[in-house]
Each structure stands twice: as C-alpha cells, then as structure tokens.
Design a protein that fits this description.
This protein is α/β, with parallel strands linked by helices. The protein has nine helices and 14 strands. It has one domain: TIM Barrel (Alpha-Beta Barrel), CATH 3.20.20.70. Helix 1 crosses helix 2 and helix 1 runs parallel beside helix 8.
Length: 270
C-alpha cells in the first residue's frame, strides 16, 4: 500500500475566528500553521486566503505572499483552492492559478451549501481543468456525490483530466453523500484504474472516516476548513493537533506517512 498523504485544510472560506479563535487568517499565521502541520506529518496544505477583514479572498497577491511565507518555512505541497467563497466569479477563481501552484482543487459539480448554491457549471469546470492542464498543475477533483464522480470520470476518459487522476471524497456536508463509511467504497470502486483518492470528512465525520480511508488505501484531509473540534464540544487548539492525531492513527494501523517528496511521486507531480 502507498504511504499515506495527509492534507491540512487550515482555513477554508466559511470558518471564522468567532467559531475557533485559533483559525489562521493572515499570511504569517497561515505559514506558521502550515509549518506546524508539516512537522506533524502533513505533506499538503490546502490554501484559502483571507483579506485584512478576515473575509475570504481570491487575491493573487495574497496567494503569492502566503505561498512565499510557507515556502520560507518548509517544502510542503501547496494546493490552491479554486472554489473560493460561495458566489465568487469564475474569473476570480481562475486568477491565482497564474502563480502555477503544484496542485489546485477542482470541484466537479454544483451543490447546496446551507441556503446557498456552490455553483460549478460544466463550462467553468472545463475552464479550470484546461488552465491546470496548460500550466502542469495537478488537479484534486472534489467529489460530493456519485453524480459528480461519474461526471469527473467522463472528463478523464475524454482527456480533459490527465491520468492517473486524483480525487477527493467530501463526505458529510448534509447536501451530498453522507459520512457513512460505506460511501468511501462506493466511490472508490468507480475510480479509473490507477487513480488515487483522499477522504475529507465534515465535522464529526472527519475523525470517523480517517481510519477507514487509511485502511482502504486512500489518503486523508483534516483541518479547520472542515472541522473545528478535537472532540465533542472541545475546540481543537490547532490544525496541527488534528494532523498529529491522524499521524498517530496511521502508525497504529501500520501505514507509513508520506513526506512531501514521496507525496509528489505518488500524485505524479512533476
């Protein structure tokens, strides 16, 4: 079995410091948190950025500044979010890719988030995929339900996404597939041959799904974007604490953890 890739989604677009005061928002806060997560076993950091008011932003300058601060501290793979915040234009979502990060997220369809719609029209998905292919950016295809996965598999077959492709199963959002562990196997069994996958459980599902993903041959995402608690009613003190817990789980389950160089090889990042 491949070594385990742990991704730290340290900030997100929706979580606030009011919900968890430890949320990193400035470039320095995010860089220091990424470094701590790297020390704890993460080989990828999933990056959203915030402006001076702590509001989600797609500012190219903020992505560049934060990325440089992270690189000054460690060699972790930086994965840009192209989701932005709900309602962000496709032009704004595309813009940070001009910095040519090693990885970027690619949402495979639209989904309800609370009372809003996180819109990902087919034409916009193709535009993002084309930009990533042009600039040799490794996509992580974000999958919230079975239909999204089947659509993304079609994009692989049609050549819009290179093989081997990397997918992430986002489970437990309340509007897509639930956090039932069986859904990991449902989705895994429909992947194109040679693909890799990770699992991002939302809220309490983050901890519940991590060991299932580990033994199923998948990779794991944790962090404040998806879950701000360490245990029921107890806020996590840092993203690194959540990473460290998965690292300990992996060791208990006798699966080695990948460093950034090993993760690049597993994901086919060149």
């Amino acid at each position: 079995m491949e070594k385990l890739i742990i991704t730290a989604a340290i900030t997100g677009a929706e979580t606030t410091k009011k919900q968890n005061p430890a949320l990193p928002c400035t470039a320095i806060e995010q860089a220091e948190e990424a470094y701590r997560c790297w020390q704890a076993g993460a080989s990828v950091v999933h990056l959203h950025v915030r402006d001076e008011k702590q509001s989600p932003s797609q500012s190219v300058e903020l992505f560049e500044k934060t990325s440089q601060e992270i690189r000054n501290r460690c060699d972790i793979i930086i994965q840009y979010s192209t989701g932005g915040a709900v309602g962000a234009s496709i032009a704004d979502r595309l813009a940070p890719l001009n910095l040519k990060p090693e990885m970027a997220s690619l949402n495979a369809g639209s989904i309800n988030f609370g009372n809003e719609v996180f819109e990902n029209l087919p034409k916009d998905i193709l535009a993002l995929a084309a930009k990533m292919k042009l600039d040799n950016i490794k996509p992580e295809v974000e999958v919230y339900d079975l239909g999204m996965l089947e659509y993304a598999v079609t994009l692989v077959k049609q050549g819009y996404l290179d093989q081997p492709a990397h997918f992430q199963f986002v489970l437990g959002t309340k509007h897509g597939l639930s956090g039932d562990p069986e859904n990991i196997f449902l989705l895994r069994n429909k992947l194109p041959a040679g693909s890799t996958f990770a699992v991002a459980g939302i809220g309490r599902h983050q901890l519940q799904l991590a060991p299932v993903a580990i033994v199923a041959g998948g990779h794991v995402r944790v962090g404040f974007e998806d879950n701000i608690y360490f245990s029921k009613g107890v806020l996590a003190k840092s993203n690194a604490d959540l990473v460290e817990r998965v690292s300990l789980l992996a060791k208990t389950l006798q699966r080695e953890i990948a460093g950034p160089a090993e993760a690049r090889k597993i994901l086919g990042i060149t």
